[in-house]
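Running this now, will post back.
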Amino acid sequence: MSTTSPVASPTVLRGVPVVPGVQYAPVIRAGRLPDIQAPAGDLDEADRPAEAGRFAAAATAVADRLRARAAHATGAASEVLAATATLAQDRAWLGAAEKRIAAGTPAVRAVAEAVDQFVELFTQLGGLMAERVIDLRDIRDRVIAELSGLPEPGVPLPDVPSILCAEDLAPADTAGLDPQLVVGIATTLGGPTSHTAIIARQLGIPCVVAVTGLDAVAAGVMALLDGTAGTLTADPDASQAAEAVAAAQRDALAARQWAGPGATADGHAVAILANVQDGAAARAARETPAEGIGLFRTELCFLNRDSEPTVEEQAAIYGEVLEAFQLGKVVVRTLDAGSDKPLKFAGHPEEANPALGVRGIRIAQANPGLLDRQLEAVAAAAGTTTTAPWVMAPMIATADEAKSFAAQSRSYGLTPGVMIEVPAAALLADKLLEHVDFLSIGTNDLAQYTMAADRMSADLAGLTDPWQPAVLTLVALTARAGARAGKPVGVCGEAAADPLLAAVLVGLGVTSLSMAPAAIPAVGARLARVTLEQCRGAAEAVLGTGSAAEAREAALAHL
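Update: finished.
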């Protein structure tokens, strides 16, 4: 419960919009671990082995609960829970805590000191390593609560639909939210592609991040959250708030009634696809108007493993997704690990800047058999269904990389494409298309690398906004290259889930949009209300702007 005083009435706070929608509800705040004082002094030597065992049991219990939640979740929620469970049993920080306990430090204090050590290290490294700081602190609090016999800290279960306000949310907390009770999210930290934003989008919860002044909004205050405009209004006029919610509900009803297929009002076809990570998510996506899968993330079966899964194990996992869309398009992204998603069996080197290190296709270059076995498994899965999957490689930066991947994929009878996440790839899209059959733009990483800004940084959230004209200029270059080559160019980053931006992307020449299944109806319904000429006019106007805010305004004026 917040101890701050309520803000004056009414107060409009501004942040970065990441999931559209409008909600009016009371504020709740994430619970925090109470201050726990570790026993003073050191442990007697005879007590240290038992204390070490108590710590090991607590860390294992936390990791096991996270894995269990990952097993019952789907999509991005499952991925972040699995990654957090892996971090909970990471030997580096566990070893640091065990060393302290062996020297006589009580377990609670040893956990706090060990995590502080790695928080400082990760913060200094910056980039994707700094993203893990909130995960580490979350694990620290869960382990300390387990050691102290207290309930795990996290998001309270509200009695009525509420808007959750927090400094930031640990992935484990965000992944467990009930969208019927937590109807809106606002955070002080985070960016448009943070874990909180991605999972909120998957759950369909309106969300605004990087909100200035949010700490002053106390629990219990009535608030109007506008995930489209990027605002949170504390203690607004109740009747005006109700009108705003009613208007948003009318839009939502229109979206729910949209049944596909994707097209503009004048009949220009745009494939509306889903991002998934496992068979369960694919089956859920099949219940939407999705025409296929535009991004199948294959990392799940590789994380939390000490050894590489066999071809047969992989084929069984891939087969579940292919079976869900036997008459539709399925695009499989090959292993996108490394950086913040390390593989225990791939021999990752220690890197000063992992975001610019060995990740994506670069792992396959260092472990050539890894990609061969994955492609073999995709081909084997295809052989048991009527689906002819496309495959695409992440983090491609050169035409030679595209040529090599294309040849390797075609040797297994698969249709090859590559991800456009690196500015170099966008600038050389014509050259890449000499070798591959399609391109798919990952706007999350493209924004990060184009703007030289950590996509998880709240301070830089405005820079990593996919509405940045520099990012959209690279999207336009890529789409034009696809048109010249007569080959499709899709967007599978989070930008595709923004209904307004989706129309701009179509105007830039993008041929397909892939997104979290929850976002599909709103995007499809928005495209159905505008013509291709309107989309092209909005795209041209956006490319003439100088900031993300100006780009949004220009798009609204045309659409």
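The chain is about 45% helix and 15% strand. More later if anyone needs it.
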